[in-house]
Amino acid sequence: MIDSLTLAAFAGTAVFAASGALLGLRKGMDSVGVSFVATVTGIGGGTIRDLLLGDTPVGWVQNPTDILICVGVAMGLCLIHRHLVGRRMDGLLYADAAGLALFCVLGAQKAESLGAHPVSIIIFGAMTATFGGIIRDVMCNETPVLFRKEIYVSSALLGSSLYTFLPDAMGFSGRALFGMIGAFSLRLAAMHWQWAIPFPRYRASDER
Q1: 53 with 116: CB under 8 angstroms?
Q2: Which residues lie below 8 Å from residue 86, measured CB to CB, with a gap of 6+?
Q3: For 15-41, what is the mean pLDDT?
Q4: What does the pLDDT look like over 104-114, one tens digit per residue?
């Protein structure tokens, strides 16, 4: 029987895959290209995390459920994408924020279970939640979310930090809950009030 956390992880994978598929459709890709971008977006962060942690073979090699979810989402969006043109996709943004909050904690928990240093745990948590989107943007010739002003990666870092540094006495559920609430709240606040981390402004030096 599948537990609720696994179901939530599947849902998060589907949301990330949808964001990749929609970007692929916007770039005019065919169904194969859309499926590839959706799959990379859905499983990219976790794959890189597991490879760096030495946890191989990566989970989807032996259990391709995540890949099937990503391809299924991509195919579904390919069929209905004409009905989505011009529509606001606010619901997807909120779902993406929830997926980010979930995966930054799950990524941190995975790194913690394999004995990573606390600083590395935080990084792996954020990596799990955001690297799929970064790879998606690079593949689609977009400015990676890591280099944009919007508060996105910072939300994942907050969530994984809360999970990492909250006391063990709270148990996994308590630490995970606070981590997810922190990441989700910061992301929603940034979306609502358009918070952004200021970029430094450099003046080009005079040519000599």
Answers
A1: yes
A2: none
A3: 94
A4: 999 999 999 99
For residue 117, give the DSSP letter.
Answer: -
Please, which contacts does 136-144 make with residues 24 or more away whose CB atoms are closer than 8 Å? 136/19, 136/20, 136/23, 136/37, 136/40, 136/41, 136/44, 137/23, 139/37, 139/40, 140/23, 140/24, 140/27, 140/37, 141/27, 142/23
Sign, CA torsion 45/50/52/53: positive
Please name the residues in contact with 37: beta carbons below 8 A apart, sequence gap of 6 or more: 20, 21, 23, 24, 29, 74, 136, 139, 140
Say what the pLDDT of residue 207 is.
47
Q: How confident is the model at residue 208 (pLDDT cuts 50, 70, 90)?
A: very low
**Distance between first and last Cα of the chain:** 70
Q: Give the chain's length.
A: 208
d(CA 61, CA 82): 33
Per-range mean pLDDT, top range of 4-18, 45-59, 87-101: 45-59
pLDDT category at 83 given cuts 50, 70, 90 is confident
